[in-house]
Amino acid sequence: MLRSMYSGISGLQNHQTKLDVIGNNIANVNTAGFKKGRFTFQDMISQQVQGATEPGADQGGTNPVQVGLGSQTGTIDTLHTQGAMQPTNRELDLAIGGDGYFRIQNPEGGEFYTRTGNFSRDEAGDLVNEDGYYVLGADGGTITIAEEASDFSIGSDGTVTEDIDGEVIEAGTIGLATFANPEGLEQAGGNLYGETVNSGDANNLEAGTGGAGEIAAGMLEMSNVDLSEEFVEMISGQRGLQANTRIITTSDEVLQEIMNLR
């Protein structure tokens, strides 16, 4: 059987995966805090036809002769670049300008991390995300805004202050986390990320300290998906898929010609 057919199949499968990544990026173009994915290819193992030889006294060396056997998935990266800030003028919409992630309590234990800051208050006044998970403070506890507070504000350092009967009281400080390798974080769905062995341990900080960015209230960070770039990548992926399909059909025609030799 022709090697080109199997190379074409591997290329076809991997270009389909590339289009899957692009499709997910485009689907989330308006998802606040979404970080786009990037697919990269890697060549597969090559078949050794002839090894390299070293130069001798009367003859020069020769290069290795190898036939490639197709492509495979290199990486599917999550690019944690900054998205554009969109003003919302809503007090509990928060965005991070710079590095860092909001800390979210995982109901099953541990923590989640997110760049999506469309928070709200529950019936008890606790600050929660859109799934009802508690937003954690710099001390690891929840942040509660009293029901009787007539007003509240969130500073760039994450400090939450509330006005109770004309007295300004600090309700807590929203905590941020940074990682040595943010691209090592694992997507957990719902705009949440989880820590992995390759992301490094979370550095729990206050906003504006230790390399963490500052918090902007009344703003949301939009996705970092560039539609024009995604469309170009989609065209490239589509043409690559078509070319690999042509390799398969051409290999089939060659095999048909061989069958007709009899």
TrEMBL record:
Its main location: other. InterPro entries: Flag_bb_rod_N, Flagellar_basal_body_rod_CS, Flagellar_FlgE/F/G, Flg_bb/hook_C_dom, FlgE/F/G-like, FlgF, LlgE_F_G-like_D1. It holds the Pfam family Flg_bbr_C. Residues 95-161 form the Flagellar hook protein FlgE/F/G-like D1 domain. GO terms for biological process: bacterial-type flagellum-dependent swarming motility. Residues 217-261 form the Flagellar basal-body/hook protein C-terminal domain. It is found in: Bacterial flagellum basal body. The keyword Lyase does not apply. Keywords: Bacterial flagellum, Cell projection, Cilium, Flagellum. One of its GO terms (cellular component) is bacterial-type flagellum hook. Residues 5-35 form the Flagellar basal body rod protein N-terminal domain. SUPFAM superfamilies: Flagellar hook protein flgE. Belongs to the flagella basal body rod proteins family. This is Flagellar hook protein FlgE. It comes from Natribacillus halophilus. The lineage of its organism: Bacteria, Bacillati, Bacillota, Bacilli, Bacillales.
